[in-house]
Amino acid sequence: TGKAVAFPDMPVIIRITCTVSSRFAHTVMSSKALNKENSSQEIFFEVELPKMAFITNFSMEIDGQVYVGEVKEKESAKEQYEKAVSSGKTAGLVKASERKMEKFSVSVNIAAQSSVSFILIYEELLQRTVIFWQDVCPCVFTM
């Protein structure tokens, strides 16, 4: 299941597709946010992934250019993101935290009059419970 909070001033489109084959789930979450304002706007994207799921791709498309996520040291990544935000550029910062579910958070600053698209792909071996499989993918956008 997925859930999103819509913004009156920032249209957000979300699409989630999940293919299950032989107890293996392949989930693609794509979204697009459009900033119609004359100043940059920051949004937050959160997804709770099952503990056993693994991310195979996270990318963002900004002004026709695709940026594939890369792992950086926490402070260096935060500093690079804050520098881009302070100059009004579109930028993204991804964080993960552990509990029973893996919380995957993205902060995105969208430049004035522009849009950004996200693609998150994760995979998981599903646990069989009697005669069904369970796959959970809640998501929340906030601004």
TrEMBL record:
InterPro entries for this protein: ITIH, VIT
Residue ranges occupied by any VIT domain in the UniProt entry: 1-124
Highest taxon of the lineage: Eukaryota
Pfam families documented for this protein: VIT (PF08487)
Protein name listed in UniProt: VIT domain-containing protein
